[in-house]
Amino acid sequence: MSNQQTFVPAPLPRDAKVYIAGHRGLVGSAIWRKLEAEGFTNLVGRTSKELDLKDRNAVFEFFRTEQPAYVVLAAAKVGGILANSTYPQDFLSENIQIQVNVMDAALDVNVERLLFLGSSCIYPKLAAQPIREDSLLTGHLEETNDAYAIAKIAGILQVQAVRRQHGLRWISAMPTNLYGPGDNFSPKGSHVLPALIRRYEEAVETGASSVTNWGTGTPRREFLHVDDMADACLHLLEHYDGPQQVNVGTGSDVTIREIAETIASVVGFTGNTEWDTSKPDGTPQKLLDVSKLREAGWIAGISLEDGLRSTVEWFRANRSSLRE
User: Does 199 lie in the same domain as 137?
Assistant: First the structure.
């Protein structure tokens, strides 16, 4: 067993080589933008066509060639409820392969700091609100995405195992619901917030007098702008060390009805919003306890209205090239 390296909070060297796995995704691209803006000059990324992270030999070869000092593991196979419940084996197998290959290869070249990114779905379906980090593995998972959640839990445990066995200062972060530039606005695959943006935007374009949303609008959800998430990631890399995963969120939530009203206002929809109460509401509340993150010195800085406004602007500017 290796000796634990001593962690001293400090800015990362701006000329250090940083590999961002998944740098084209919602989170990875935001982290890339953040690091560039902060003066990092040696960022490394590979598309899935350039490097298949499920190809273990290719991943090891990549790490031995590039020798990154720091790694952010944001790559994952992701999808909505329908995809997760239809293809659980794919989500379990592919995500575990990606994580194990990247972490084993990072260990092979002795990467000193690795940040593994997961999801708040790792927590029990009926966890007490707000959800604390220590509620992990204390109850049953939400059935519709349990395979994906198990893969992410395995990633957390691998980070902890590397810390125990090899002494490297690797960490994990679990974000709440994210949104922002680069989100998935497809009608079939998007999450609630981008789906609402698209729905209200199309209502404005067609001159519709009303919009109908699912459920009662009463469930409460927490939303974090992806640029805030990227800022939190850099802060954790420079200031946090510990085996336990860190929740990343705003620490406050809003109802789906409030989100819908704000989006309608931002896009300029002046019609009526109807609620189809025959459709399911889902979990009544999902809010993360962010005390650990605040103790590490970070709080979210982008208000929901400002974040929604910039996201709508991005959607309008990039709509012609978005996936359907």
Answer: no
pLDDT tens, position by position, 27-42? 999 999 999 999 999 9
- Active-site annotation holder among 19, 70, 123, 148: 148
Q: Which tokens hold the place of 323?
A: 């996936």
Distances (CA, A) of 235 to 12, 240, 275, 304: 10, 8, 40, 21
Helices 192-206 and 304-318, packing angle to 10 deg? 60
pLDDT per position as a tens digit, 177-215 = 999 999 988 877 678 899 999 999 999 999 999 999 989
Cis peptide before 284 (omega within 30 of 0): no
Could you tell me the residue range of the domain that residue 317 belongs to?
Answer: 192-220+254-286+313-321
Cα–Cα dist 25/41, whole Å: 20
Same-domain pairing of 160 and 28? yes
- The DSSP output letter for 24 is T
Question: In this structure, what token pair is assigned to residue 91?
Answer: 């989500």
Task: Identify whether residues 125 and 238 lie together within a single domain.
Answer: yes
* Residues near 21 by beta carbon (within 8 Å), at least 6 away in sequence: 28, 45, 53, 71, 72, 73, 74, 75, 98, 102
Token pair for 254:
């809003």
Residue 162 lies inside a defined structural domain of this protein: yes
148 is catalytic: yes
Of the candidates 54, 41, 46, the residue with the CA atom closest to the CA atom of residue 100:
54
Q: How far is CA 240 from CA 170, 179, 243, 245, 280, in A?
A: 10, 24, 10, 10, 39
Strand, coil or helix: 116: strand
Asked whether residue 117 falls in the same domain as residue 203, the answer is no
